[in-house]
Specification:
Blueprint lengths: L6 H25 L18 E8 L7 E8 L6 E5 L5 E3 L2 E6 L3 E9 L4 E8 L16 E5 L7 E4 L4 E6 L15 E2 L3 H13 L1 E5 L4 E5 L2 E5 L12 H14 L6 E4 L2 H12 L28 E2 L2 E2 L6 E8 L4 E2 L6 E2 L1 E5 L12 E5 L7 E2 L2 E4 L1
Parallel strand pairs: 18-23
Antiparallel strand pairs: 1-2, 2-5, 3-4, 3-6, 6-7, 8-9, 9-10, 10-12, 11-18, 12-24, 13-14, 15-24, 16-17, 18-21, 19-20, 21-22
């Protein structure tokens, strides 16, 4: 057989060579870099930012939740900025954002190298606005948080308003079916729509008084002030409607009180104070007008002087008293004045119409506030 290899040995050698080849191929393949679906090489750490979001309910105000966004990255140049849900950009790797409504909020982090990523968080902890959980407008703080006693808010200037809860979302108007009365003012319609959504509104805690801002007189709702009297309806509605703008309110409106607001307020008071709206046991009928909030017997549900002190203009029209003006085609419009005054003992629920261009020493007005 000499130097020839047997077929068996040759076959074994072939198998060994093939196995070695396969082994070398696999080793070479494992040393070759490959990319993952996201484009990052295997074995290479991503430099994309990583966002972490946390939330915390305000202990003093359950209607506020603070979201904290914190971003990290493996890139040595770090995080450049964080984009908040409202579009605000905060430079750095940490930012806070306060929300007052439940919902989904999205944040985005951007690295110095241009890499970015976003993350969403759900807020469900805020109690829904209701008759028993009033909204608090921006710039106001809560003075009394008991709705049954009279939920009171105050702005930075000292204006105070009291929440009138409306569980049904529907306002009351006692003269709605009377042909003698009409409520067509646009602010009354705005209040109806607001209450349908927010289940309440705010009434001025006090009769309107004069307050000076930058040399201009504006209508205020403040304690211990002489009520603003000798004012026509035409002037009262202008000052009342502009009060929100004058005091810098950003998310609510003010207006002259209307028949819906007056009657709904009395209905709420009557539910716990028997016959308040139909008797003359509470108001200041002494003959002398007192500073707002002075008459203790007429502070009901933290609302002052609805019964007496000064009578108050409303936007309601008394149609039975329209008349020609100076024999022209223009008619004199009569507006409804509510309540009694220091010189006239009338119930809080009383109605009477006067020409909207007249004024009296014992007539004043009151503002309301709503979203």
């Amino acid at each position: 057989m000499g130097g020839k290899l047997s077929p068996v040995i040759i076959a074994v050698l072939v198998i060994v060579v093939v196995a070695l080849g396969v082994l070398m191929f696999n080793i070479m393949k494992s040393d070759t870099p490959s990319t993952n679906p996201g484009g990052t090489e295997q074995g290479v750490e991503s430099t994309k930012p990583v966002l972490n979001l946390s939330k915390e309910v305000d202990e003093q105000d359950k209607n506020k939740v603070t979201i904290t966004a914190y971003a990290t990255t493996t890139d040595p140049d770090g995080i450049q900025e964080i984009h908040l849900p409202d579009g605000t950009i905060v430079v750095g790797d940490i930012a806070t954002y306060i929300v007052t409504e439940n919902g989904t909020y999205e944040f985005k982090a951007v690295c110095v190298n241009g890499e970015e990523d976003s993350l969403k968080i759900n807020v469900t902890e805020i109690p829904e606005i209701s008759a028993t959980n009033p909204y608090v407008p921006e710039g106001f703080e809560v003075i009394n948080d008991n709705v049954d006693e009279g939920f009171v808010i105050e702005d930075k200037s000292g204006n105070q308003y009291v929440w009138i809860p409306v569980e049904s979302g529907k306002l009351t108007r006692n003269t709605i079916f009377s042909v003698e009365y009409e409520e067509s003012n646009s602010t009354a319609s705005a209040l109806v729509n607001s209450v349908a959504k927010n289940y309440g509104f705010y009434i001025g805690r006090f009769e309107a008084s004069q307050y000076e801002i930058d040399g201009k007189i504006v209508a205020a709702s403040m304690s211990g002030k002489i009520p603003w009297t000798n004012v026509t309806y035409q002037d009262a509605i202008v000052y009342a409607n502009k009060s929100a703008e004058a005091f810098g309110y950003t998310d609510c409106s003010t207006s002259l009180i209307n028949s819906y607001a007056w009657d709904t307020t009395l209905e709420w008071i009557d539910a716990s104070v028997t016959n308040y709206s139909s008797v003359t046991n509470y108001g200041n009928y002494s003959g002398t007008i007192y500073p707002t909030g002075t008459t203790q017997s007429d502070i009901i549900k933290n609302i002052s002087d609805l019964a007496g002190n000064v009578r108050e203009w409303t936007t309601e029209i008394y149609k039975s008293s329209t008349e020609q003006k100076d024999n022209s085609k223009e008619k004199v419009i009569y507006r409804v004045v509510r309540g009694g005054s220091a010189n006239l003992s009338r119930t809080p629920g009383s109605h009477i119409g006067y020409s909207e261009s007249t004024a009296d020493t014992y007539w004043g007005f009151r503002t309301i506030l709503y979203k």
